[in-house]
Amino acid sequence: MAILVLGGAGYIGSHMVDRLVNEGQEKVVVVDSLVTGHRAAVHPDAVFYQGDLADQDFMRTVFKEHADIDAVIHFAAYSLVAESMADPLKYFDNNTAGMVKLLEVMHECGVRYIVFSSTAATYGIPEEIPILETTPQKPINPYGESKLMMETIMRWADQAYGIKYVPLRYFNVAGAKPDGSIGEDHGPETHLLPIVLQVAQGKREKIAIFGDDYNTPDGTNVRDYVHPFDLADAHLLAVEYLRNGNPSTAFNLGSSTGFSNLQIVEAARKVTGHPIPLEIADRRPGDPDTLIASSEKARAILGWQPKFDNIETIIQTAWAWHSSHPDGYNDR
Ligand code: UFG
Questions:
Q1: In what order do the strands lie in the sheet with 2-6?
Q2: Which of 95, 122, 140, 172 to mutate to test the pocket of ligand 1 (most atoms within 8 A of CB)?
Q3: The NAD-dependent epimerase/dehydratase domain covers which part of the protein (predicted)?
Q4: Strand pairing partners for 209?
Q5: How many angstroms does the Cα of residue 191 sit away from the middle of ligand 1?
Q6: What is the C-alpha to C-alpha distance for residues 177 and 155, in angstroms, rounded to an integer?
Q7: Which end of the chain is more exposed for a tag (fewer CB within 10 A), N or C?
Q8: What b/e readout covers 88-123, taking b as 16+ CB neighbours within 10 angstroms?
Q9: Ligand 1, from 78, 284, 289, 311: best to mutate by most atoms within 8 Å of Cβ?
Q10: Tens place of pLDDT for every residue, the chain, 332 residues?
Q11: 226: which strand partners?
Q12: Which ligand 1 atom is the nearest neighbour of the CA of 172?
């Protein structure tokens, strides 16, 4: 058997590919457009194709050349909340319409399983904390909406064509492979932790914290951080779950612990030994107050056991990557 990883040159996808190759159980095929991904992030033992998953002729060729692919792990999407508020159609085109094109080719080529990156952003302003998989999904930004639409499309594709799927709804992903060889490299960077670490590196003067008047203990947003290694474990377990004939279902993936933006800065000060100056800035549109997962379902059904449950350890791994790669992959 073989696994196709879409978006395998991206931040989370590259950790997945690394893990699959190191497992050594099956062939790993990677497709990435390299619009945001990095060729150098892809493990050299994976088979790599540069291309767009919405290009159906291209995808047919990949599935024909590797007829043993029975499962797809799909990371290839745009994922920035603020960008999606400014340019929603980019998200509905690439993320949502791309999913339709992908499922058409999977159906045609008889590929039966898909595990896909969904997001906490599908819940919008959640009706309960911690968030359960049954908590109503009411996104407040086009990014979350595009992912919710992808989940819906998969539900109907399962019913009609029997393509079994698992959406994994990640909370905030942070950290890197502990040896510092692969990590997060977005251009431009918009995520909290990498920007905080850029201040520690001396690449920025200070971090702007977006809003301190939210309904949270210190007024700044609270998020639940999960490490890409733990996500990779969950994806492997989800593929196995589908291959064992289990029904399609969604899982939240988070640590079940919330950290405010100020707490993240404080933890980064401890890890890096740098003062990391901050200023309070205006709220960023589209940010909910608090996002904390219940991941009990993933633990109970998939047997998922996240190992990176300490925020300082997560930050240490990110710091190992940023310190050894001050300019990221340096390929732009
Ligand atoms: N933040 C700042 N200053 C910055 C950058 C971010 O204060 O310079 C704040 C944000 O306002 C937010 C928090 O830090 O309160 C986290 O922001 P990120 O941009 O790091 O992450 P998001 O919570 O916006 O989004 C991430 C992923 C999404 C996913 C979401 C789920 O990018 O794909 O987590 O919680 F949906």
A1: 47-50, 27-32, 2-6, 69-74, 113-119, 164-170, 251-253
A2: 172
A3: 3-254
A4: 280
A5: 5
A6: 33
A7: C
A8: eebbeebbbbbbeebbebbeebebbbbbbbbbbbbb
A9: 284
A10: 999 999 999 999 999 999 999 999 999 999 999 999 999 999 999 999 999 999 999 999 999 999 999 999 999 999 998 899 999 999 999 999 999 999 999 999 999 999 999 999 999 999 999 999 999 999 999 999 999 999 999 999 999 999 999 999 999 999 999 999 999 999 889 999 999 999 999 999 999 999 999 999 999 999 999 999 999 999 999 999 999 999 999 999 999 999 999 999 999 999 999 999 999 999 988 788 999 999 999 999 999 999 998 999 999 999 999 999 999 998 87
A11: 173
A12: 34
SS3 for 73?
strand
Tokens of 106: 């999977």
In sequence order, what E strands does 175-288 have?
207-210, 222-223, 225-226, 251-253, 259-260, 278-281
**Cβ < 6 Å from ligand 1: which residues?**
79, 81, 119-121, 171-172, 190-192, 195, 207-210, 221, 223, 261, 284, 287, 291
- Token reading at 45: 């033992």
